[in-house]
Amino acid sequence: MTKPLFVQKYGGSSVADTDCLRRVASRVASDVRDGRNVVVVVSAMGKTTDRLIAMAREVHANPNDREYDQLLSTGEQITISLLSMALHHQGIDAVSMTGAQAGIRTDASHTKAKIIAIDPKRVQENLDRDRVVIVAGFQGVNPDMDVATLGRGGSDLTAVAMAAALKADRCQIFTDVDGVYTADPRVVPNARKLDVITFDEMLEFASMGAKVLQSRSVEFAKKFGVELEVLTSFETKPGTLVNEAEQMEDVLVRGVTADKNQAKVTLRGVDDTPGVAARLFTAVAEAGVNVDVIVQNISLEGHTDISFTVPREDVDKVQICLKKIEGVNFREELYDGSIAKVSLVGVGMRSHTGVASKVFSTLADLKVNIQMISTSEIRVSVVIDEKLADEATRALHAAFDLDQGPEPA
Ligand code: ASP
Ligand code: MG
To answer: What is the DSSP secondary structure assignment for residue 251, as one 8-state letter?
Structure first.
């Protein structure tokens, strides 16, 4: 009989020091003794990646991409070899592999490479010999045989892609929180840990700044139908399952999340002629800035106002881009770095109405002014004053009874 195969990913905080590594080794060892095959994907220890980036910047303000990847990939290589040794110490047969050794091939784009193929032959051969295979997260090898990294948080993607390539029974993401919550428990004390969440909801959460899983890894898991489990490495208890179960449509609102990393840009008195928005947002995109919510008013005498939100750290780039933009005339530009985007997410919204109006009346009761509104079929988001975001989050959490367990739609 073939053994069940689990891919387990341990993030930086779960492998922060050698004590942590020993604890991870014990957990893996007990799964092996329970009769499982295990592939372990690890991040760099603790804040190692941040430290490597800081060192790179000390020697060059704008380091070469190839060398940057060469450097950053070393963080994960420390973890794989140490973890392998820790497993050996516990009498478990284990072998460590870099991304290249594990057959992870990427495209040519350094620092944010995409995985284009995985050849799991070598990993599989080792699993067939009942070895634990420990794979360095966040890296692969590109067509030039150079090391390429997958973007920050990319070890999640390594784990999901490995799970898909090996047709694993489950992909477990071990982290320092014990699952996905209805809201940030630091803001909402009675937030509830979710047993299940759909891929689409998790994607909304991930892109909204709930830093539990990297967005790209969730997209990948959805595409290849890899069931994920988010759980803590610090205790033994079930976490949150991310999958596509049918009955989950019954839940109207799954959770509420606040993104406090956005800034609002407003252009006043913009010419309202065809092509203006195209030129404006093309220029912003070319500056490498991700635009989120966009609002444009109907025009008065050929002029209108356009507001949009961007990540706070990109405001400088927008300012530079607006100085040299051509074919977009406006009277003035305003920047507001003290906003927050508060969002309610739930797949039940696809088939039910009334969520938006309840959001607005809850905020009205708090006398919170809504600056912008945006929706998707499973999300309602409002942009409000950052100072009011926590209070608004708590009020919405209460209004939708999110502490009570799933609300029937
Ligand atoms: N070590 C990398 C980072 O810190 C990759 C990861 O942790 O997922 O972004
Ligand atoms: Mg990480």
So the answer is: B
Instruction: State how far the Cα of 344 lies from the Cα of 349, in Å rounded to an integer.
Output: 10
Q: CA torsion sign, 214 to 216 to 221 to 222?
A: positive
Tell me, rounded to whole angstroms, the distance of Cα 187 from its chain centroid: 20
* CA distance linking residue 365 with residue 40, whole number of Å: 49
Q: How many CB atoms lie within 10 A of CB 142?
A: 19
- Number of other residues whose CB lies within 10 A of the CB of residue 2: 7
Domains in the chain (CATH in brackets) are 5-176 (3.40.1160.10)
Which ligand 1 atom sits closest to the C-alpha of 12?
7
CA distance 260 to 365: 22
d(CA 242, CA 347): 13
Q: Could you tell me if 269 and 298 are in contact, meaning their C-beta atoms sit under 8 angstroms apart?
A: no
What global pTM score does this model have?
Answer: 0.87
344-377 as b/e, with b when 16 or more CB fall inside 10 Å?
Answer: bbbbbbeeeeebeebbeebbeeeebeebbebeee
Interior/surface letters 268-284, b for 16+ CB within 10 angstroms, e for the rest: ebbebeeebbeebbebb
Q: Which of 152, 156, 210 is nearest to 180 (CA)?
A: 210
d(CA 379, CA 372): 14
Residue 123, sorted as left (phi over 0), alpha (psi -120 to 50) or beta, turns out to be alpha
* Interatomic CA distance for residues 80 and 44, integer angstroms: 9
In this structure, the residue with its CA closest to atom 6 of ligand 1 is: 153
Strand order in the sheet with 115-118: 115-118, 104-106, 139-141, 147-149
**Nearest ligand, CA 41:** 1
Ligand 1 proximal residues by C-beta, below 6 Å? 11-12, 43-44, 49, 75, 137-138, 152-156
Total Cβ atoms within 10 A of residue 312: 15
In residues, how long is the chain?
Answer: 409
Smallest-distance ligand from the CA of 48: 1
Return the axis-axis angle of helices 18-33 and 65-89, rounded to nearest 10°: 60
Residues 331-382: tens digit of each pLDDT: 999 999 999 999 999 998 988 888 999 999 999 999 999 999 999 999 999 9
pLDDT in tens, 92-127: 999 999 999 999 999 999 999 999 999 999 999 999
